[in-house]
Amino acid sequence: MVTTRRLLLVNGPNLNLLGTREPGVYGTATLTDVERITSDAAASDGFDVRAIQSNHEGVLIDAIHAARDDCLGIVINPGGLTHTSVSLRDALTGVALPFAEVHISDVHKRESFRHFSYLEDVASVRVIGEGVDGYATAVRRLTPLIP
Ligand code: CA2
């Protein structure tokens, strides 16, 4: 039997705009770059990656639910839903997979409404303000927590 060790990479609303606007905040790398950085880091640890980006909360929640079937962990940048969504939190705790919360920018140095995260007390790993390289950090810190 072949067992694929897989991570789900989730990028939330507006992260499809990476590399096109606000380079001073988010840098110049694109979403494609983020997916490659994450896949390369995961491959080093023996995992492959399924990546999803959506601007729709329900689509993200459905993808998280589906991860129960074939993923062992989740790397997620929820975008602005970080600061608003009980439902996203409930999806992540509901599937009970270890997950890493990633923020490209240093949310603590930005507006006060970005300082609170609905995921902060349930994430296994949090990586904040490392730019897009933070996705690789998240993988490196998450995979050792997966049996
Ligand atoms: O720093 C992060 O990664 C954030 O999760 C990004 C979210 C923001 O709401 C969070 O507070 C922090 C926003 C993602 C929007 O990404 C864009 C990228 C380029 C241009 C415009 C938006």
Quick summary of this structure?
The protein is an alpha/beta fold.
> What is the CATH class name?
Alpha Beta
- Approximate shape: globular
And the CATH topology? Answer: Rossmann fold
Give the H and E element order: EHHEHEHEEH
State the total count of DSSP E strands: 5
Mean pLDDT reading: 97
What can you tell me about this protein's structure?
The longest helix has 14 residues, at 31-44. The protein has helices at residues 23-26, 31-44, 57-70, 86-95, 134-142; strands at 6-11, 48-53, 73-77, 99-103, 125-128. Helix 2 (31-44) packs parallel to helix 5. It is α/β, with parallel strands linked by helices and 147 residues long. 35% of the residues lie in helices and 18% in strands. The site of ligand CA2 has 16 residues, from loops.
Main attributes?
alpha/beta, 147 residues, Rossmann fold, 35% helix, globular, five-stranded parallel sheet, 5 helices, binds ligand CA2, 18% strand
